[in-house]
């Protein structure tokens, strides 16, 4: 998606450790018009599919997923939680994932009320790096017997391999910008053609 690549090139900054900072428009300050265009792009890509629900993970995925939902007939958006809430009401699907990016393990939790065997899920998230967070979301869908129809990602760090792994597994993955290389010293970002 040209518009997103341009924003990354113009406003993104490359930090040491292969971290791209895009908090001016994606995950601190949110550019709603850009989110809306991203939602339209996913709607076009996944047009042939029936989506009953969008699944994401807190925190940065939520805003993007909610705007995207407006392009999928206002389907509900469920976000997985990363911390056990104090109010436990009934059963939950739980898994644990280790984030290489953040160098820590965290739980991924969704109430059984909100993920069902009849659901056709579109997973949405802001970043795809090694893909551990996504693997956790997919696992919860499998636990629920829900069908993962597709995965929509804003920015895939292609050089970290999570996306190519999911494609090899047969998932319909639509990343709107795929970065093949970036350099903290020069600040350069190279997109996959
Ligand atoms: P991992 O397996 O390497 O840990 O990567 P994964 O794709 O699971 O992403 C883990 C978390 O790290 C995600 O945050 C993702 O958004 C974030 N992340 C990965 N690479 C980058 C990067 O280059 N820049 C930025 N800004 N974030 C990155 P999350 O679990 O969704 O948490 P939250 O930040 O949304 O709260
Ligand atoms: Na995220
Ligand atoms: Na994030």
From TrEMBL:
It is an enzyme of class 2 (transferase). Keywords: Cytoplasm, Glycosyltransferase, Purine salvage, Transferase. One of its GO terms (molecular function) is xanthine phosphoribosyltransferase activity. Pathway: Purine metabolism; XMP biosynthesis via salvage pathway; XMP from xanthine: step 1/1. Its EC number is 2.4.2.22. Xanthine binds at residues 20, 27, 157. The keyword Kinase does not apply. InterPro entries: PRTase-like, PRTase_dom, Pur/Pyrimidine_PRTase, Xanthine_PRibTrfase. Gene3D superfamilies: 3.40.50.2020. It is found in: Cytoplasm. One of its GO terms (cellular component) is cytoplasm. Coiled coil: none annotated. Converts the preformed base xanthine, a product of nucleic acid breakdown, to xanthosine 5'-monophosphate (XMP), so it can be reused for RNA or DNA synthesis. Homodimer. PANTHER family: HYPOXANTHINE/GUANINE PHOSPHORIBOSYLTRANSFERASE, XANTHINE PHOSPHORIBOSYLTRANSFERASE. This is Xanthine phosphoribosyltransferase. It comes from Bifidobacterium anseris. The lineage of its organism: Bacteria, Bacillati, Actinomycetota, Actinomycetes, Bifidobacteriales.
């Amino acid at each position: 998606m040209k518009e997103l690549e341009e924003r990354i090139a113009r406003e993104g900054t490359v930090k040491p450790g292969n971290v791209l900072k895009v908090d001016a428009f994606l995950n601190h300050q949110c550019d709603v018009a850009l989110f809306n265009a991203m939602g339209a792009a996913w709607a076009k890509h996944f047009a042939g599919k029936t989506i009953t629900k969008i699944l994401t993970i807190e925190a940065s995925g939520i805003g993007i997923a909610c705007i995207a939902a407006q392009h999928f007939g206002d389907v509900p958006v469920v976000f997985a939680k990363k911390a056990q809430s104090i109010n436990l009401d009934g059963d939950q699907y739980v898994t644990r994932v280790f984030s290489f990016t953040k160098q820590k393990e965290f739980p991924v939790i969704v109430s059984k009320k909100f993920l069902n065997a009849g659901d056709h899920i579109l997973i949405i998230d802001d970043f795809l790096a090694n893909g551990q967070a996504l693997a956790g979301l997919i696992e919860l869908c499998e636990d629920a017997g829900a069908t993962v129809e597709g995965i929509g990602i804003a920015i895939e760090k292609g050089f970290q391999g999570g996306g190519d792994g999911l494609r090899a597994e047969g998932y319909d993955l639509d990343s709107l910008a795929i970065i093949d290389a970036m350099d903290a010293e020069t600040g350069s970002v190279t997109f996959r053609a």
